[in-house]
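Honest question from a wet-lab person: if I give you the sequences of every part of a complex, can you actually get the arrangement of the whole thing, not just the pieces? Trying it with mine:
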Amino acid sequence: MTVLDNRVVTAASGEEAADPRDPRVRLSHLLDEGSIRLISPEDKSGVLAVTGRVEGVPVVAFCSDARVQGGAMGGDGCEHIVHAYDVAVRERVPVIGVWHSGGARLAEGVESLHAVGRVFAAMTKASGIVPQISVVVGAAAGGAAYGPALTDIVILSDNGRIFVTGPDVVRSVTGEEIDMASLGGPDPHSKRSGVAHVVTKTEAEALLRARQIASLLGHQGRVRDVDEADFGDLLPDNPRRAYDVHPLVNGLLDEPGVELHPKWAPNMVTMLGRLGGRTVGVVANNPMRLGGCLDSTSAEKAARFVRMCDAFGVPLVVLVDTPGYLPGVGQEHDGVVRRGAKLLHAFAEASVPRVTLVTRKSYGGAYIAMNSRALGATRVFAWPTMDVGVTGAVAAVRILKRRELAAVPEEERPALEAKLAEEHEKMSGGVARAIELGVVDEVIEPAKTRGSIAKVLAQATPARGAHGNIPL
Amino acid sequence: MAEVRAEMVANVWKIVVSEGDTVAEGETLVILESMKMEIPVIAEDAGVVAQLKVAEGDVIQEGDLIAVIE
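Yes, you can. This is the full assembly:
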Protein backbone atom coordinates (compact mmCIF):
# COMPACT_ATOMS: atom_id res chain seq x y z
CA MET A 1 0.00 0.00 0.00
CA THR A 2 1.48 3.34 -1.05
CA VAL A 3 0.86 6.63 0.69
CA LEU A 4 0.84 9.61 -1.64
CA ASP A 5 2.08 12.87 -0.26
CA ASN A 6 -0.10 15.55 -1.87
CA ARG A 7 2.58 18.19 -1.51
CA VAL A 8 4.91 16.39 -3.87
CA VAL A 9 2.51 16.74 -6.74
CA THR A 10 1.45 20.36 -6.33
CA ALA A 11 3.20 22.92 -8.49
CA ALA A 12 3.41 25.28 -5.50
CA SER A 13 6.06 23.09 -3.87
CA GLY A 14 8.65 24.56 -6.20
CA GLU A 15 9.46 21.17 -7.68
CA GLU A 16 9.02 20.42 -11.34
CA ALA A 17 5.45 21.37 -12.24
CA ALA A 18 3.31 18.24 -12.44
CA ASP A 19 1.23 17.38 -15.51
CA PRO A 20 -2.31 18.56 -14.60
CA ARG A 21 -3.67 15.42 -16.30
CA ASP A 22 -1.75 13.20 -13.89
CA PRO A 23 -4.41 11.32 -11.91
CA ARG A 24 -2.32 11.78 -8.77
CA VAL A 25 -2.63 15.56 -9.18
CA ARG A 26 -6.37 15.39 -9.76
CA LEU A 27 -7.00 13.01 -6.85
CA SER A 28 -4.81 15.14 -4.55
CA HIS A 29 -7.10 18.11 -5.25
CA LEU A 30 -10.18 15.98 -4.61
CA LEU A 31 -9.18 14.27 -1.37
CA ASP A 32 -8.03 15.44 2.07
CA GLU A 33 -4.30 15.96 2.31
CA GLY A 34 -2.38 12.87 3.36
CA SER A 35 -5.48 10.62 3.19
CA ILE A 36 -4.79 8.88 -0.13
CA ARG A 37 -3.99 5.13 -0.29
CA LEU A 38 -3.57 3.37 -3.64
CA ILE A 39 -5.82 0.37 -4.24
CA SER A 40 -4.62 -0.20 -7.81
CA PRO A 41 -1.08 -0.33 -9.19
CA GLU A 42 0.28 2.75 -10.97
CA ASP A 43 0.50 1.24 -14.42
CA LYS A 44 -0.30 1.95 -18.07
CA SER A 45 -3.96 0.90 -17.64
CA GLY A 46 -5.20 4.52 -17.90
CA VAL A 47 -6.91 4.38 -14.48
CA LEU A 48 -5.71 5.01 -10.92
CA ALA A 49 -7.92 3.89 -8.00
CA VAL A 50 -7.51 4.99 -4.37
CA THR A 51 -9.21 5.32 -1.02
CA GLY A 52 -9.16 8.63 0.83
CA ARG A 53 -11.28 11.13 2.73
CA VAL A 54 -13.26 14.27 1.92
CA GLU A 55 -13.88 16.57 4.88
CA GLY A 56 -12.96 13.54 6.99
CA VAL A 57 -15.53 11.26 5.32
CA PRO A 58 -14.07 8.02 3.89
CA VAL A 59 -14.54 7.56 0.15
CA VAL A 60 -13.25 5.50 -2.75
CA ALA A 61 -12.08 7.40 -5.83
CA PHE A 62 -10.70 6.62 -9.25
CA CYS A 63 -9.39 8.83 -12.03
CA SER A 64 -8.67 8.45 -15.75
CA ASP A 65 -5.04 8.87 -16.75
CA ALA A 66 -5.43 11.08 -19.81
CA ARG A 67 -1.68 10.88 -20.46
CA VAL A 68 -2.05 7.25 -21.57
CA GLN A 69 -3.96 6.79 -24.86
CA GLY A 70 -6.15 9.80 -23.96
CA GLY A 71 -7.45 7.95 -20.90
CA ALA A 72 -9.06 5.26 -23.06
CA MET A 73 -10.41 2.28 -21.11
CA GLY A 74 -9.03 -1.23 -21.64
CA GLY A 75 -9.26 -4.50 -19.75
CA ASP A 76 -6.84 -3.56 -16.95
CA GLY A 77 -8.15 -0.04 -16.36
CA CYS A 78 -11.73 -1.28 -16.20
CA GLU A 79 -10.65 -3.98 -13.75
CA HIS A 80 -9.29 -1.22 -11.46
CA ILE A 81 -12.67 0.56 -11.58
CA VAL A 82 -14.60 -2.65 -10.85
CA HIS A 83 -12.24 -3.29 -7.91
CA ALA A 84 -12.83 0.27 -6.64
CA TYR A 85 -16.57 -0.42 -6.72
CA ASP A 86 -16.08 -3.71 -4.82
CA VAL A 87 -14.22 -1.82 -2.09
CA ALA A 88 -16.80 1.00 -1.94
CA VAL A 89 -19.72 -1.43 -1.65
CA ARG A 90 -17.89 -3.53 0.97
CA GLU A 91 -17.03 -0.44 3.04
CA ARG A 92 -20.40 1.26 2.32
CA VAL A 93 -18.71 4.54 1.33
CA PRO A 94 -19.33 6.97 -1.56
CA VAL A 95 -17.39 6.43 -4.76
CA ILE A 96 -16.15 9.37 -6.84
CA GLY A 97 -15.00 8.91 -10.46
CA VAL A 98 -12.92 11.61 -12.17
CA TRP A 99 -13.30 11.21 -15.94
CA HIS A 100 -11.12 12.28 -18.86
CA SER A 101 -11.31 9.46 -21.36
CA GLY A 102 -11.97 8.80 -25.03
CA GLY A 103 -13.93 5.63 -24.19
CA ALA A 104 -13.07 2.02 -24.96
CA ARG A 105 -9.52 1.27 -26.23
CA LEU A 106 -9.68 0.69 -29.98
CA ALA A 107 -6.59 -1.55 -30.00
CA GLU A 108 -8.19 -4.01 -27.56
CA GLY A 109 -11.30 -4.42 -29.66
CA VAL A 110 -14.08 -6.50 -28.15
CA GLU A 111 -12.02 -7.15 -25.02
CA SER A 112 -12.27 -3.47 -24.07
CA LEU A 113 -16.01 -3.40 -24.88
CA HIS A 114 -16.54 -6.36 -22.56
CA ALA A 115 -14.48 -4.64 -19.86
CA VAL A 116 -16.41 -1.36 -20.15
CA GLY A 117 -19.63 -3.37 -19.90
CA ARG A 118 -18.38 -4.89 -16.64
CA VAL A 119 -17.88 -1.36 -15.27
CA PHE A 120 -21.48 -0.50 -16.18
CA ALA A 121 -22.69 -3.65 -14.42
CA ALA A 122 -20.67 -2.81 -11.27
CA MET A 123 -22.14 0.71 -11.23
CA THR A 124 -25.67 -0.58 -11.64
CA LYS A 125 -25.26 -3.20 -8.88
CA ALA A 126 -23.95 -0.48 -6.53
CA SER A 127 -26.81 1.88 -7.42
CA GLY A 128 -28.79 2.88 -4.35
CA ILE A 129 -26.29 1.14 -2.06
CA VAL A 130 -23.46 3.69 -2.11
CA PRO A 131 -23.61 7.26 -3.46
CA GLN A 132 -21.84 7.57 -6.82
CA ILE A 133 -20.49 10.92 -7.99
CA SER A 134 -18.85 11.59 -11.36
CA VAL A 135 -16.66 14.56 -12.15
CA VAL A 136 -16.03 15.04 -15.86
CA VAL A 137 -12.95 17.24 -16.33
CA GLY A 138 -12.05 16.49 -19.98
CA ALA A 139 -13.62 14.71 -22.91
CA ALA A 140 -15.71 11.70 -21.85
CA ALA A 141 -16.83 9.90 -24.98
CA GLY A 142 -18.70 6.67 -25.71
CA GLY A 143 -18.21 4.29 -22.78
CA ALA A 144 -16.75 7.11 -20.72
CA ALA A 145 -19.98 9.07 -21.27
CA TYR A 146 -22.29 6.28 -20.13
CA GLY A 147 -20.14 5.59 -17.05
CA PRO A 148 -20.92 8.97 -15.48
CA ALA A 149 -24.50 8.80 -16.78
CA LEU A 150 -25.15 5.66 -14.71
CA THR A 151 -24.10 7.39 -11.49
CA ASP A 152 -26.19 9.51 -9.13
CA ILE A 153 -24.58 12.91 -9.73
CA VAL A 154 -22.66 14.22 -12.77
CA ILE A 155 -20.47 17.30 -12.33
CA LEU A 156 -19.10 18.87 -15.51
CA SER A 157 -16.21 21.34 -15.44
CA ASP A 158 -15.46 24.04 -18.03
CA ASN A 159 -13.29 21.69 -20.11
CA GLY A 160 -15.55 18.67 -19.63
CA ARG A 161 -17.28 17.28 -22.74
CA ILE A 162 -19.74 14.39 -22.77
CA PHE A 163 -20.99 12.74 -25.94
CA VAL A 164 -21.60 9.33 -27.44
CA THR A 165 -19.93 10.29 -30.73
CA GLY A 166 -17.75 13.33 -31.32
CA PRO A 167 -18.04 16.11 -33.91
CA ASP A 168 -16.13 14.19 -36.61
CA VAL A 169 -18.48 11.21 -36.54
CA VAL A 170 -21.52 13.50 -36.32
CA ARG A 171 -20.32 15.37 -39.40
CA SER A 172 -19.60 12.23 -41.41
CA VAL A 173 -22.95 10.62 -40.62
CA THR A 174 -25.43 13.51 -40.49
CA GLY A 175 -23.52 16.36 -42.12
CA GLU A 176 -24.06 18.55 -39.03
CA GLU A 177 -21.19 20.96 -38.30
CA ILE A 178 -20.65 21.43 -34.56
CA ASP A 179 -17.71 21.87 -32.19
CA MET A 180 -17.09 19.79 -29.07
CA ALA A 181 -18.31 22.43 -26.61
CA SER A 182 -21.58 23.06 -28.45
CA LEU A 183 -22.16 19.32 -28.83
CA GLY A 184 -21.35 18.13 -25.32
CA GLY A 185 -20.04 20.98 -23.18
CA PRO A 186 -21.45 22.59 -20.03
CA ASP A 187 -23.95 24.74 -21.91
CA PRO A 188 -26.00 22.04 -23.69
CA HIS A 189 -25.73 19.57 -20.79
CA SER A 190 -26.82 22.05 -18.14
CA LYS A 191 -29.70 23.60 -20.07
CA ARG A 192 -31.01 21.16 -22.67
CA SER A 193 -30.09 17.54 -22.06
CA GLY A 194 -30.08 17.38 -18.26
CA VAL A 195 -27.00 15.11 -18.42
CA ALA A 196 -25.04 17.32 -15.98
CA HIS A 197 -26.41 18.01 -12.49
CA VAL A 198 -23.79 20.66 -11.75
CA VAL A 199 -21.53 22.67 -14.09
CA THR A 200 -18.56 24.70 -12.90
CA LYS A 201 -16.24 27.37 -14.27
CA THR A 202 -13.04 25.52 -13.30
CA GLU A 203 -11.81 21.98 -12.64
CA ALA A 204 -10.91 22.99 -9.05
CA GLU A 205 -14.52 24.09 -8.44
CA ALA A 206 -15.81 20.83 -9.93
CA LEU A 207 -13.70 18.80 -7.50
CA LEU A 208 -14.85 21.04 -4.63
CA ARG A 209 -18.51 20.40 -5.49
CA ALA A 210 -17.80 16.65 -5.53
CA ARG A 211 -16.33 16.99 -2.02
CA GLN A 212 -19.42 18.86 -0.79
CA ILE A 213 -21.83 16.33 -2.23
CA ALA A 214 -19.83 13.32 -1.00
CA SER A 215 -19.82 14.84 2.47
CA LEU A 216 -23.57 15.57 2.38
CA LEU A 217 -24.42 12.01 1.28
CA GLY A 218 -21.62 10.20 3.13
CA HIS A 219 -22.01 11.93 6.50
CA GLN A 220 -25.63 12.94 6.96
CA GLY A 221 -25.58 13.86 10.66
CA ARG A 222 -28.50 14.17 13.08
CA VAL A 223 -30.95 17.03 13.52
CA ARG A 224 -29.95 19.53 16.21
CA ASP A 225 -31.92 22.56 17.43
CA VAL A 226 -32.31 25.23 14.80
CA ASP A 227 -32.64 29.01 14.77
CA GLU A 228 -35.73 30.40 13.12
CA ALA A 229 -35.63 32.51 9.98
CA ASP A 230 -38.26 35.07 9.06
CA PHE A 231 -39.87 34.45 5.72
CA GLY A 232 -42.64 37.01 6.31
CA ASP A 233 -41.66 39.33 3.45
CA LEU A 234 -40.95 36.60 0.95
CA LEU A 235 -44.34 36.21 -0.72
CA PRO A 236 -45.58 39.09 -2.90
CA ASP A 237 -48.71 40.85 -1.62
CA ASN A 238 -50.47 39.99 -4.85
CA PRO A 239 -51.21 36.25 -4.80
CA ARG A 240 -51.06 36.16 -8.61
CA ARG A 241 -47.52 37.51 -8.73
CA ALA A 242 -44.65 35.10 -9.35
CA TYR A 243 -41.50 35.19 -7.19
CA ASP A 244 -38.19 33.38 -6.98
CA VAL A 245 -38.25 30.49 -4.50
CA HIS A 246 -34.46 30.35 -3.98
CA PRO A 247 -34.40 32.72 -0.97
CA LEU A 248 -36.93 30.44 0.74
CA VAL A 249 -34.99 27.24 -0.04
CA ASN A 250 -31.67 28.73 1.03
CA GLY A 251 -33.22 30.32 4.13
CA LEU A 252 -34.73 27.01 5.16
CA LEU A 253 -31.29 25.37 5.07
CA ASP A 254 -28.50 26.15 7.55
CA GLU A 255 -26.50 27.59 4.68
CA PRO A 256 -27.14 27.63 0.92
CA GLY A 257 -26.95 24.07 -0.39
CA VAL A 258 -25.83 22.47 -3.64
CA GLU A 259 -28.50 22.91 -6.30
CA LEU A 260 -28.77 20.08 -8.82
CA HIS A 261 -29.91 20.84 -12.38
CA PRO A 262 -30.33 24.60 -11.69
CA LYS A 263 -30.83 25.53 -15.36
CA TRP A 264 -32.65 22.45 -16.62
CA ALA A 265 -36.37 22.46 -15.76
CA PRO A 266 -35.85 25.54 -13.53
CA ASN A 267 -39.55 25.58 -12.62
CA MET A 268 -38.63 22.90 -10.06
CA VAL A 269 -35.73 23.43 -7.65
CA THR A 270 -33.86 20.36 -6.34
CA MET A 271 -31.22 21.04 -3.70
CA LEU A 272 -29.10 19.09 -1.22
CA GLY A 273 -28.19 20.88 2.00
CA ARG A 274 -28.38 20.64 5.77
CA LEU A 275 -31.21 21.53 8.16
CA GLY A 276 -30.16 21.55 11.81
CA GLY A 277 -26.93 19.90 10.66
CA ARG A 278 -28.71 16.94 9.02
CA THR A 279 -28.59 16.37 5.27
CA VAL A 280 -31.95 16.90 3.57
CA GLY A 281 -33.15 17.07 -0.03
CA VAL A 282 -35.40 20.00 -0.90
CA VAL A 283 -37.87 19.86 -3.78
CA ALA A 284 -39.58 23.18 -4.52
CA ASN A 285 -41.80 24.67 -7.22
CA ASN A 286 -40.34 27.92 -8.50
CA PRO A 287 -43.21 30.28 -9.46
CA MET A 288 -40.71 32.56 -11.25
CA ARG A 289 -40.31 29.96 -14.02
CA LEU A 290 -43.39 28.75 -15.92
CA GLY A 291 -45.41 30.16 -13.02
CA GLY A 292 -44.28 27.16 -10.95
CA CYS A 293 -46.25 24.76 -13.16
CA LEU A 294 -45.24 21.13 -13.25
CA ASP A 295 -44.33 19.89 -16.71
CA SER A 296 -42.89 16.69 -18.12
CA THR A 297 -39.23 17.64 -17.66
CA SER A 298 -39.54 19.05 -14.16
CA ALA A 299 -41.54 16.01 -13.01
CA GLU A 300 -38.82 13.71 -14.33
CA LYS A 301 -36.05 15.80 -12.76
CA ALA A 302 -37.76 15.79 -9.36
CA ALA A 303 -38.62 12.08 -9.60
CA ARG A 304 -34.98 11.13 -10.05
CA PHE A 305 -33.95 13.40 -7.17
CA VAL A 306 -36.61 11.97 -4.85
CA ARG A 307 -35.54 8.40 -5.67
CA MET A 308 -31.87 9.22 -5.09
CA CYS A 309 -32.62 10.78 -1.70
CA ASP A 310 -34.84 7.84 -0.77
CA ALA A 311 -32.17 5.29 -1.72
CA PHE A 312 -29.60 6.98 0.55
CA GLY A 313 -31.94 7.74 3.45
CA VAL A 314 -31.94 11.51 2.91
CA PRO A 315 -35.20 13.02 4.27
CA LEU A 316 -37.17 15.26 1.92
CA VAL A 317 -38.63 18.71 2.39
CA VAL A 318 -41.17 19.63 -0.29
CA LEU A 319 -42.16 23.28 -0.80
CA VAL A 320 -45.38 23.68 -2.76
CA ASP A 321 -46.62 26.68 -4.73
CA THR A 322 -47.95 25.49 -8.06
CA PRO A 323 -50.92 26.44 -10.22
CA GLY A 324 -51.02 22.94 -11.73
CA TYR A 325 -49.68 20.93 -14.62
CA LEU A 326 -48.74 22.98 -17.69
CA PRO A 327 -51.44 22.57 -20.36
CA GLY A 328 -50.61 22.28 -24.05
CA VAL A 329 -50.30 20.05 -27.07
CA GLY A 330 -46.50 20.11 -26.72
CA GLN A 331 -46.68 18.81 -23.16
CA GLU A 332 -49.16 16.05 -23.95
CA HIS A 333 -47.15 14.85 -26.94
CA ASP A 334 -43.94 15.20 -24.93
CA GLY A 335 -45.29 12.55 -22.57
CA VAL A 336 -46.40 14.64 -19.59
CA VAL A 337 -48.66 11.73 -18.62
CA ARG A 338 -45.89 9.12 -18.71
CA ARG A 339 -43.17 11.38 -17.30
CA GLY A 340 -45.43 13.04 -14.73
CA ALA A 341 -46.33 9.56 -13.47
CA LYS A 342 -42.68 9.11 -12.47
CA LEU A 343 -43.05 11.79 -9.80
CA LEU A 344 -46.22 10.21 -8.41
CA HIS A 345 -44.40 6.87 -8.29
CA ALA A 346 -41.26 8.33 -6.71
CA PHE A 347 -43.09 10.01 -3.83
CA ALA A 348 -45.56 7.20 -3.27
CA GLU A 349 -42.79 4.58 -2.97
CA ALA A 350 -40.46 6.73 -0.79
CA SER A 351 -39.64 5.38 2.68
CA VAL A 352 -37.67 8.37 3.98
CA PRO A 353 -39.31 10.94 6.26
CA ARG A 354 -40.79 13.62 4.00
CA VAL A 355 -42.39 16.87 5.04
CA THR A 356 -44.54 19.03 2.79
CA LEU A 357 -45.07 22.76 3.24
CA VAL A 358 -47.70 24.48 1.11
CA THR A 359 -46.81 28.16 0.99
CA ARG A 360 -49.47 29.36 -1.40
CA LYS A 361 -51.22 27.67 -4.33
CA SER A 362 -51.64 23.94 -4.65
CA TYR A 363 -54.05 23.03 -7.41
CA GLY A 364 -55.19 20.00 -9.27
CA GLY A 365 -52.96 17.10 -10.22
CA ALA A 366 -49.93 19.04 -9.07
CA TYR A 367 -51.39 19.11 -5.53
CA ILE A 368 -51.35 15.32 -5.49
CA ALA A 369 -47.92 15.00 -7.09
CA MET A 370 -46.12 17.33 -4.69
CA ASN A 371 -45.85 14.82 -1.82
CA SER A 372 -49.46 15.09 -0.69
CA ARG A 373 -50.87 13.25 2.31
CA ALA A 374 -52.40 10.70 -0.04
CA LEU A 375 -48.93 9.80 -1.37
CA GLY A 376 -47.68 9.26 2.17
CA ALA A 377 -46.26 12.57 3.41
CA THR A 378 -44.97 12.24 6.98
CA ARG A 379 -46.42 15.64 7.84
CA VAL A 380 -48.10 18.39 5.82
CA PHE A 381 -47.74 22.00 6.94
CA ALA A 382 -49.33 25.08 5.39
CA TRP A 383 -48.67 28.75 5.73
CA PRO A 384 -51.80 30.85 6.38
CA THR A 385 -51.56 32.00 2.73
CA MET A 386 -52.35 28.49 1.47
CA ASP A 387 -54.97 27.99 -1.23
CA VAL A 388 -55.83 24.44 -2.24
CA GLY A 389 -58.32 22.96 -4.64
CA VAL A 390 -58.92 21.22 -7.92
CA THR A 391 -58.46 24.66 -9.42
CA GLY A 392 -58.56 28.21 -8.00
CA ALA A 393 -61.93 29.15 -6.48
CA VAL A 394 -62.67 31.90 -9.02
CA ALA A 395 -61.75 29.65 -11.93
CA ALA A 396 -63.90 26.90 -10.44
CA VAL A 397 -67.05 29.02 -10.16
CA ARG A 398 -66.56 30.32 -13.69
CA ILE A 399 -67.08 26.74 -14.81
CA LEU A 400 -69.52 25.48 -12.18
CA LYS A 401 -71.71 28.62 -12.15
CA ARG A 402 -71.36 29.59 -15.79
CA ARG A 403 -75.11 30.03 -16.38
CA GLU A 404 -75.70 31.96 -13.17
CA LEU A 405 -72.88 34.34 -14.04
CA ALA A 406 -74.05 34.76 -17.64
CA ALA A 407 -77.52 35.77 -16.43
CA VAL A 408 -76.36 38.97 -14.70
CA PRO A 409 -75.21 42.18 -16.43
CA GLU A 410 -71.48 42.30 -17.10
CA GLU A 411 -70.77 45.09 -14.58
CA GLU A 412 -72.23 42.99 -11.75
CA ARG A 413 -70.29 39.88 -12.71
CA PRO A 414 -67.02 40.46 -10.74
CA ALA A 415 -68.93 41.00 -7.47
CA LEU A 416 -71.01 37.87 -8.02
CA GLU A 417 -67.90 35.92 -8.96
CA ALA A 418 -66.22 36.90 -5.71
CA LYS A 419 -69.32 35.98 -3.67
CA LEU A 420 -69.72 32.61 -5.38
CA ALA A 421 -66.00 31.91 -5.02
CA GLU A 422 -66.20 32.51 -1.28
CA GLU A 423 -69.19 30.16 -0.98
CA HIS A 424 -67.43 27.60 -3.14
CA GLU A 425 -64.34 27.70 -0.97
CA LYS A 426 -66.39 27.20 2.20
CA MET A 427 -68.20 24.24 0.73
CA SER A 428 -65.60 22.42 -1.31
CA GLY A 429 -62.18 23.13 -0.09
CA GLY A 430 -59.83 25.74 1.18
CA VAL A 431 -57.64 25.42 4.22
CA ALA A 432 -60.36 24.61 6.75
CA ARG A 433 -61.64 21.65 4.75
CA ALA A 434 -58.08 20.44 4.14
CA ILE A 435 -57.42 20.35 7.88
CA GLU A 436 -60.80 18.72 8.59
CA LEU A 437 -59.94 15.95 6.13
CA GLY A 438 -56.47 15.56 7.60
CA VAL A 439 -54.69 16.28 4.32
CA VAL A 440 -53.07 19.29 6.02
CA ASP A 441 -51.90 18.67 9.58
CA GLU A 442 -51.18 22.16 10.78
CA VAL A 443 -51.11 25.79 9.69
CA ILE A 444 -47.84 27.39 10.83
CA GLU A 445 -46.57 30.94 10.79
CA PRO A 446 -43.68 31.47 8.34
CA ALA A 447 -41.43 32.42 11.28
CA LYS A 448 -41.88 28.89 12.75
CA THR A 449 -40.98 27.04 9.57
CA ARG A 450 -37.46 25.82 10.26
CA GLY A 451 -38.24 24.63 13.77
CA SER A 452 -41.47 22.87 12.78
CA ILE A 453 -39.83 20.93 9.94
CA ALA A 454 -36.69 20.13 11.96
CA LYS A 455 -38.84 18.74 14.79
CA VAL A 456 -40.65 16.34 12.48
CA LEU A 457 -37.36 15.13 10.98
CA ALA A 458 -35.79 14.71 14.42
CA GLN A 459 -38.71 12.56 15.64
CA ALA A 460 -39.24 10.52 12.47
CA THR A 461 -37.93 6.97 12.27
CA PRO A 462 -34.95 6.91 9.92
CA ALA A 463 -35.57 4.78 6.84
CA ARG A 464 -34.36 4.34 3.30
CA GLY A 465 -35.85 2.80 0.22
CA ALA A 466 -34.52 -0.56 -0.93
CA HIS A 467 -34.07 0.26 -4.60
CA GLY A 468 -31.50 1.49 -7.08
CA ASN A 469 -31.43 4.92 -8.68
CA ILE A 470 -32.10 4.32 -12.34
CA PRO A 471 -31.20 7.47 -14.33
CA LEU A 472 -34.82 8.36 -15.13
CA MET B 1 -25.93 39.21 -27.42
CA ALA B 2 -28.58 37.27 -25.56
CA GLU B 3 -32.01 36.44 -26.87
CA VAL B 4 -34.84 36.30 -24.38
CA ARG B 5 -37.55 33.90 -25.51
CA ALA B 6 -40.93 32.92 -24.09
CA GLU B 7 -40.94 29.73 -22.02
CA MET B 8 -44.68 29.22 -22.39
CA VAL B 9 -47.83 30.46 -24.08
CA ALA B 10 -48.82 33.73 -22.43
CA ASN B 11 -50.40 37.18 -22.76
CA VAL B 12 -48.04 40.14 -22.53
CA TRP B 13 -49.52 41.97 -19.54
CA LYS B 14 -47.02 44.78 -18.95
CA ILE B 15 -43.92 46.14 -20.66
CA VAL B 16 -41.44 47.30 -18.03
CA VAL B 17 -38.39 48.41 -20.07
CA SER B 18 -37.89 50.24 -23.37
CA GLU B 19 -35.42 49.74 -26.18
CA GLY B 20 -32.14 51.42 -25.28
CA ASP B 21 -32.53 50.87 -21.51
CA THR B 22 -29.60 49.44 -19.59
CA VAL B 23 -30.63 46.43 -17.50
CA ALA B 24 -28.89 44.46 -14.77
CA GLU B 25 -28.94 40.67 -14.49
CA GLY B 26 -32.20 39.60 -12.90
CA GLU B 27 -34.07 42.78 -13.84
CA THR B 28 -37.65 42.44 -15.08
CA LEU B 29 -38.15 43.16 -18.80
CA VAL B 30 -41.83 42.40 -19.25
CA ILE B 31 -44.54 40.72 -17.20
CA LEU B 32 -46.51 37.91 -18.79
CA GLU B 33 -49.86 36.53 -17.75
CA SER B 34 -50.40 32.80 -17.97
CA MET B 35 -51.98 30.10 -15.81
CA LYS B 36 -53.64 32.92 -13.83
CA MET B 37 -50.18 34.03 -12.76
CA GLU B 38 -48.24 37.22 -13.41
CA ILE B 39 -44.81 35.99 -14.41
CA PRO B 40 -41.90 38.42 -14.78
CA VAL B 41 -39.48 37.75 -17.62
CA ILE B 42 -36.02 38.61 -16.37
CA ALA B 43 -32.74 39.49 -18.06
CA GLU B 44 -30.27 36.61 -17.61
CA ASP B 45 -27.36 38.89 -18.52
CA ALA B 46 -26.67 42.57 -17.91
CA GLY B 47 -26.67 44.79 -20.99
CA VAL B 48 -28.67 47.14 -23.15
CA VAL B 49 -32.13 46.28 -24.48
CA ALA B 50 -31.38 46.32 -28.22
CA GLN B 51 -34.74 45.04 -29.38
CA LEU B 52 -38.13 44.60 -27.76
CA LYS B 53 -40.31 42.39 -29.91
CA VAL B 54 -43.60 42.34 -27.99
CA ALA B 55 -46.34 44.82 -27.06
CA GLU B 56 -48.88 44.81 -24.24
CA GLY B 57 -51.80 42.57 -25.12
CA ASP B 58 -49.86 40.34 -27.51
CA VAL B 59 -50.36 36.60 -27.26
CA ILE B 60 -47.00 34.85 -27.54
CA GLN B 61 -46.14 31.22 -28.06
CA GLU B 62 -43.39 29.14 -26.46
CA GLY B 63 -40.09 30.03 -28.12
CA ASP B 64 -41.20 33.45 -29.42
CA LEU B 65 -38.57 36.19 -29.22
CA ILE B 66 -39.34 38.74 -26.50
CA ALA B 67 -36.19 40.85 -26.40
CA VAL B 68 -32.54 40.99 -27.39
CA ILE B 69 -29.99 42.14 -24.80
CA GLU B 70 -26.58 43.33 -26.03
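Two things worth pointing out. The mean pLDDT of chain B is 92. The two ends of chain B are 4 Å apart (CA to CA).
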